[in-house]
Each structure stands twice: as C-alpha cells, then as structure tokens.
Design a protein that fits this description.
Strands 14-13-12-15-16-17-18-19 form an eight-stranded mixed beta sheet, with helices on both faces. Strands 1-2-4-6-8-11 form a six-stranded mixed beta sheet, sandwiched between helices. A three-stranded mixed beta sheet has the order 7-9-10. The longest helix is centred in the first third of the chain and has 21 residues. Helices cover about 50% and strands about 10% of the residues. By secondary structure, it is an alpha/beta fold.
Amino acid sequence: MPDFTLATDADGIATLTWDVAGKSMNVMSAEGFALLDALIGRALSDPAVKGIILTSGKKDFSGGMDLNIIAGMKDGGAQGIFDGVMRIHGILRRIERAGMDPRTLTGGKPIVAALPGTALGIGLELPLACHRIIAADNPKARIGLPEITVGIFPGAGGTTRLVRKLGALAAAPFLLEGRLSDPRAAKAAGLIDEVVAPEALLSRARDWVLTATDADLVKPWDAKGYRMPGGTPYHPSGAMTFVGANAMVLGKTMGVYPAARALLSAVYEGALVPFDTALRIEARWFTNVLLNPSSGAMIRSLFINRQALEKGALRPAQPDQAVRRLGVIGAGMMGAGIAHVAASAGITVVLIDTTQTAAERGRAHSEDLLDTGIRRGKVTPDRKAEVLGRITATTDHAALSDCDLVIEAVFEDPKVKAEVTARVEAAVGPDCILATNTSNLPVSGLAQASQRPDRFIGIHFFSPVDRMMLVEIIRGKATGDRAVAKALAFVRQIGKTPILVNDARFFYANRCIIPYINEGIRMVAEGVRPALIENAARLAGMPLGPLQLVDETSIDLGVKIARATKAAMGDAYADGAADEVLFAMADQGRLGKKATAGFYAYDAAGKREGLWPGLATRYPVTDPQPDLTEVQHRLLFAQVLEAVRALQDGVLADIREGDVGAILGWGFAHWSGGPFSWLDIIGAARAVEICDALTARHGPRFAAPALLRDLAAKGDTFYGRFAPAVRAA
C-alpha cells in the first residue's frame, strides 16, 4: 500500500490520507515525500478539486521523520544534506502556496490539516505549511517539535514557520525545549487553530474548505506589511528577546549542545530576511548540525538505540510474559513508586509491608502523585480512582498467591532480603518470577536464598521511580530466559527503557557513577576549588556536579556504600582519599540535602545557597589550580573507563545499553551520545593518550583498559566493532 492515498468526493473535496502500511504510527520516508508531492500536484491541477484535507488513516497523525532519510542525506555530504532539505522545503512551500498567483496571492486552493491524534516533528511541520490546522479533542495526543531532544532541530521549515507564527519568545519553549502539548494547550499557545470533537474532525475540515476565502490562504509572512510578533533582532523589544534567548540557551546547555546554538542562529539570521531566504538559512544550519558528530551520536543513542531496547531487542525467545498481577514487598519510597507506575500502566498490584499503616502509607504515595496530576490538569478524578483501585495495601503474603511477578524492595541487607525471598516463595505459585530491587548487592548471591534461582532476577529502579526512565535488569548466574523475558516485558508495560546487564558488584550504572562522585570528592581533598570541580562538570555536559550529586543522593548513603565496598574488596579498594572527606562530612552531621547541610549550604526550606564555606577551612585551596580541561578529563574518564571495563568484563552484553543507560540512568553528557559514542568521537588513540597522561599524574585508576588499547592499535571504534547490524544515523 502507498503511504498516501487521494480520494475526491462529489463536492470537490480531495482527502489526502496518510497511512503507512505495517506501522502503528505514520513516519515520513523519502518515498512518502515524493508521493505526497505528486498527489498534491495532482489535486492542485485538477479543476474539479475545490480544496484538500490532509489527515491520517491511523489514530495518530505522525510520529515524525524516518531517520533513514537523514542517513541517506549524509551519504551525500554537506551538499547532499542541503539539497535534500531544500527539496523538502520546496514540497512544503508548494502546499503553502497552494497554486495561488504569486503576484496577487489569489486563486489558490485551501488545504487543511485534520489531526486525529499525536503530531510530532514533520507531523507538525507539514500541518504548519497548511492553511489551517484542526485537531481532535484527544487528551492523550501530543503535538510539538521534539527534535532538540535527540540532537537536531526542526529543519523542515518548522523553526522558521513557528517563529514567524508566534514570535521568537513564544516559540522558544517548543523549539529549544521540545515542549509537547495536548490539543487544547497547543491551541492556547497558537500552534494549531481549532480543537473539535473527534467525531466532528473531518466534517469541520470539510466545512472550512468550502467556506475559505483567498485571504484565509495567505500566510502572515507572505502578506504585505508582515511584522514578526515580538519584533526582529534590531527592533527594540526584539533585541531584548534575542539577548535573553542567547543567555537562556547558554545557561541551560553550557554551550556543549550544537543543535541549540544552530537553532538560535537560524532563528536570529532568518528573522532578518524574507521568508524564502530564511528557509535557506534554516537548511544551512540544519546541515551544519547533521555534520556535527554530536548530532549523529545523540540520534543513534536517544532515538534508534533507545527505541530498539524499548521494543525488546534483547528479549529472549519466550511466549508472552506480560505481567497481569504484580506483588511489591516493601512500601517505602521505592516500593510505593514501583506500585504506582505499575498501577498507572493497568497492572493489578498487591503492596505489602510489615504493618497495615506502612502499607497504606505506600498506597498514599500514589494518591499524592495523582493529586498533583489533578492540580496540573494532567489527571482526572476518574483516572485517580481507577489507578488507586488497582493497588491493594496489605500485610498478608497470601495475597501474592496469584501474582506472576513479585518485586521485593526492602532494605539493602542480604539477610533481610533472604527472609523476604523465603516468605514470598512459600506464598506464590511455582511459575511466579521473583525480582530483587537492589542497587549494588550481587544478584547471584541473593539468589542463593531462593529455591528456584532460575526464576530469580534483579530489577534496579532509579529514584524517583515515576520520573526516571531507565530500569536496569540484572541477570544472575542462574537466572533463566523466562525470568529475563518477564522483567523486560514488565519494564515495557510501564513505559520505561530497560538495559539488561550481567551480574557484578554495582552492575553498570552505579559502577560508573560512583567513580565520578569519588573523583570530585578526591579533588576537594587535593585542594582543587570546589566551584571549579562543579562548573567543570556542568561545562562538560553533566547535569549535576559530583558534589551536588552526592548531596542529592545523601552523604550517609555514600558512607554506607564505601564501607561495604571496602569490606568486600579489601586491598583492591582504591577510594580511601575520597572516603576521608565523605566520612568527615558525615561525622559533622552534614548528610546532604535531606539534612540541609552537605557540600552545599541550604536554607531552612532546603534551597541551595552555594557551596559550603567550611570546605575551604578543612581543605584549603592550593595553587596553582589545574586547568579546566584537566578537571573535566578526570571527571569524564572516571566514568567512561568503568563503562569500557564493564563491556570488557561482559557485564554489558550490548554496546547500545552502555550509551542509553548512561544518559538515562545518571545523565552522562547527553550531547556525546554516551560514553562509547564519546570515545568514538575523540578516537581511541586520543583516549589512550589522555589515559596515559592522567595515569602518570593521578595513578592507575586511569589506566587504559586492554580493550581500549586494542581499538587504538587497530584504528577501530566501539561502534565499528560492537554495533548490532543496524544502520545508524
């Protein structure tokens, strides 16, 4: 079946329906663009056609562009990208002009976009070229331009059109943040023109086509005397907008995200010239972004690889393992969070704790989150009742009897977890899978308490559960394929991204993030300015500096992990310098944000007020200070070398999990595409060179792993050697 079909009725209304065969969501391909152009041309040249309705044969309009288009453009280099983008501009401009006389701006045919549901990326850029956008009142639909979140920006005219439609200031959240809106919010913001009942969508579109006038077909930017809302860069009010936008972008991105800088340049330069010239400027900057390796790495990790993992790329061949009834043991913040996301996904949940009061408190956590959603207009009272109705809070383990998955989320104590395992297995059926939620205890050791270790698996949720998108699934030495398939199915049901790792202390995420924190603390002990440490991290693209991060997660937790790790590793433990600082902070009662006292100072409400001045007294700053690059290399290589070792040791089985897990799990510099992508960007040989220099100055923790040295010696890359057989953008 073709991607687009055209049908004209007796009233001369041509309905152009987008319905890509074999896909649940329409995506635009090169073939789709060519067919769209041909059918638009046919309808515009047909005297019997009075106007055109562009709609979808699916419940949603479009999820965006097929990224193979971008990959194909890149094969032709800069000229190939620019020419390909300009061809798309030509198609959308033809829709926008709709056959009208360019001198009189009359004689065109009205084209209306009728959106039944979600419209993202090109799914909004295409409607923006139409003369009117009407959306069905579908609260689940999302409308917007999310390209910036995967390392590019709207390059099919969306940037230029939205700025001219709304003004730079009003367009900024949708372009620079990728904000998505439901149809009503999109109309209130000016993205679309109308919202109607779903059953009235096509009839309203027909009515508009039949009553549209020549004036309705002329875009504001094509009309004589057009002025950009809010002013252009050299207009008094516009100047302030662009100065503020530049400061906002630099403040949020620290200058390391090329797409944000390119987008702002396209907007600024495009605002100074006529519309068609602005489209060429947009195409030029889009080409610039696509040629930046950061863009390709972000697209690969945050779109292609993430989608593959979410769709079950690593799932063992097993019958359907969808979770019907979930048991959660432990109704603290973690257990309560797991119960909430499961119930929200339609799964019946039994939430158990040692007392009924504690169990009810865990259920109340879900009620609090739903009440917050109601206040923000994202949840209805009926939805709240529905979700809470799926959670049964109890102390009775017999309620687990018909659960097909049970997750224990009790204290990180092997003895406590072993007792829970025995009680659960006595209550559940023989086919039930038991998962332990743990952040650092080896799963194979915990499985020794199980009578059926093949059905025992680790599931590591990140806090807060409702907001963090990554879930780390840990396969123990005895874990069977059905347990893996059940865990992956569950994570998919709750709408999160799984990575599957093999068992080892700290697994993958904590294995990499703990050295980052420790390196920052170690530098404090060395006399490096704490502000330099924190700012170096943020300027490298980390969302939080190591000192702020340990404050957020709590210093006493860091102390507990350090002592347990030292006890387990003995002489191999190498973080004593960091521990001395951490233990001293804990001894002074500076336990982090929760205690309103840590590496940072806080006011009574818990708001950060800057780095704690007392640090300078206990750990005086020494001169000369290291340069910015030196500090950044120490912080970044502390993480990426552990990622390489995890791959080398077999903890990571798939390189995609290493990059996606790093970005979603602890916020590793998004612009890089993840640790392996970053090492490929700088090159293995350069990475080894940096490692050798760091090792000479700071010790063997920075020694290049054998795998990295082998790649450098052979001129190879991580993705060149380990990538699955899929084409990357």
